[in-house]
Amino acid sequence: MTVERVIPVAAGDTKLVFRAYDRSGVFAQSAPLRFRLEEQASPPTAPRLYLLAVGGDRYGGAIPPLRLAGADGRTFKDVVTSLAPDAYGEVVAETLFDAEATRAKIVAKLEDLARRVRPEDAVLIYLAGHGIANSDGTYFFVTPDATSVEDAEAQSLDHPTLVRLLSELSARNVLLLLDTCYAGAFHLQGPGNLANESGRFVLTGSSSVEEALDSYDGTNGVFAYAVREGLYGAAADASGDDIDALQLGVYVRRALPQLARERKHQQSAVFKAAGGDLAAFPVAAVPQPATGPVSSSGQ
Q1: How far apart, in Å, do the first and last CA atoms of the chain sit?
Q2: Band (291; pLDDT cuts 50, 70, 90)
Q3: Domains of the chain by range and CATH?
Q4: pTM score over 0.85
Q5: Residue 41, exposed/middle/buried by CB under 10 A (0-12, 13-18, 19+)?
Q6: Are the C-beta atoms of 181 and 128 separated by less than 8 Å?
Q7: Which value, in Å, is the radius of gyration of the alpha carbons in the chain?
Q8: C-alpha to C-alpha distance for 196 and 192, rounded to whole angstroms
Q9: N or C: which end of the chain has fewer CB atoms below 10 A?
């Protein structure tokens, strides 16, 4: 079997290592390939910002409904598109809400993104809904088409599949936001070897053992509220006109536990970066004061 993959490589000295995994996760590794890629004067076109927001509240069978998963996904999409940084020539926003947020459609959307994105582009993925971690610690994003608690794992977007889909994105800069219970169980290790790629971040709204608060202010859950607050300027510093993925992750990790305590709930955010250099990339322009509300929570 022959497999062709496009591997995003930054300018400068590079060491490339190939790994072949078996089904159990054991791998064989090649000798390192070292080379240098000269900096290009400029990309042929401006980078694009791709966004996929997913959220659904109604589940089948005995799986309890949620109140604000759909609203959380919509909030993220609306805020990012309204504050898109000038660094991007175009923002391409796509959504899957409510009955459309099925496992099959999420997989199809991410596979389509893999065919469209370029190395210089950036990708933001927001998944809001139920999340579970089994006895082995494997994370599952439970999609609204799941019909029973007993079969939730088989009907959900599992960790290996999600890692594979992320690894197929040729964009150097990717931020995955998981707005579910037990989301901290998701990690960057796996056949896609994301843990050795820079510019890849995961921000989760709970640890691997915590349930996520469904509502903070009646409009959004506590994680979406913290993300919204950060994008509206609370995550910014005096160093520039944009908020980058690293600033947003650090802010949400600090602010979310305090917001949860205000609602008598224990919840934390987990921020994970891939190995190598932290290649922070812009996710929002710092807004003018009148653009949106910024509270003092988490400061």
Answers
A1: 54
A2: very low
A3: 49-285 (3.40.50.1460)
A4: no
A5: exposed
A6: no
A7: 19
A8: 9
A9: N
